[in-house]
Amino acid sequence: MRIFAALTLAATVVTAPAAPAHAAEPGSATVVPVQVTGAPAKRFNLIVMGDGYTEAEQDKYRADVDRHLNVMWSIEPFKTYRNYINVYRIDIVSGESGVSCDPGLDAPRRDTPLGMGFWGGCNPSSVQRLITMDNAAATRYADMVTGTGAGDRQILALANSGTYGGAGGAYATASGSNSMSALISPHELGHSLGGLQDEYDYYQRGVPG
Q1: Cα–Cα distance between 52 and 61 in angstroms, integer?
Q2: How does DSSP classify residue 136?
Q3: Residue 31 forms beta bridges with which residues?
Q4: What secondary structure letter does DSSP report for 164?
Q5: Whether residue 209 has pLDDT greater than 70
Q6: In terms of Cα–Cα distance, which of 180, 181, 179 is closest to 157?
Q7: How many CB atoms lie within 10 A of CB 50?
Q8: What is the pLDDT of residues 68-90, one digit of tens each?
Q9: Contact 30, 14 (CB under 8 A)
Q10: Cβ–Cβ < 8 Å for 133, 115
Q11: What are the helix and strand counts (H, E) for the chain?
């Protein structure tokens, strides 16, 4: 908010300098309803949140969310059931840009609100593309969306990264700005919502399935 003070003397206007804007505290968050089709208790609620986006990068985060949602609405089952879905975006301010171990284990570790990181959270025994986060922190932010609970909502967290990656499980994650990232999120939501499995061979097992 800019506050201006003016003093008029002999037809002269003197304008005081604008008060400096206060930077948002890292970890602060705002809930933005993107699409509300009904009461949360009677809808499936998708809660999208971002990690590693600084205050200056919030426009980038919003653009990433819009791109992911636009692709999601173009494919089934989201296309058909769109009118039964509420979407809430949580704008979380990070003190650092990016997420941990991106793209490699030797990359910096970032102090971000959701603690997102490639390599399963910087685990040498994991794989590069696996993006995990602090699920307890994600739950706390999701609880900001009034009227939703574990039984009627799904969290999708986007990492501020252009590296291919994501994960499915209780919660879904995806990189926000990779060229294929808007297809990563519905894939990971398939794991989280439908318990679907991947169709490629698992190299660690060495067998199809």
Answers
A1: 9
A2: H
A3: 90
A4: -
A5: no
A6: 181
A7: 29
A8: 999 999 999 999 999 999 999 99
A9: no
A10: yes
A11: 5, 8
Asked if residue 101 has pLDDT above 70, the reply is yes
Rounded to 10 degrees, the C-alpha dihedral 35/38/40/42 comes to: -140
* Residue type, position 9, single letter: L
Strand ranges for 93-167 from DSSP E: 153-159, 166-167
Q: What is the DSSP letter of 101?
A: T
11: tokens are: 């037809």
At 5, the pLDDT band (50, 70, 90 cuts) reads very low
DSSP state of 201: -
Peptide linkage before 20 cis (omega within 30 of 0): no
User: Residue 77's closest CA among 196, 165, 158, 173?
Assistant: 196
Q: Strands 29-35 and 85-92, how do they pair?
A: antiparallel
pLDDT (tens digit per residue) in 7-32: 333 333 334 444 445 678 999 999 99
Q: Which of these, 36, 64, 39, lies nearest to 49 by C-alpha position?
A: 64
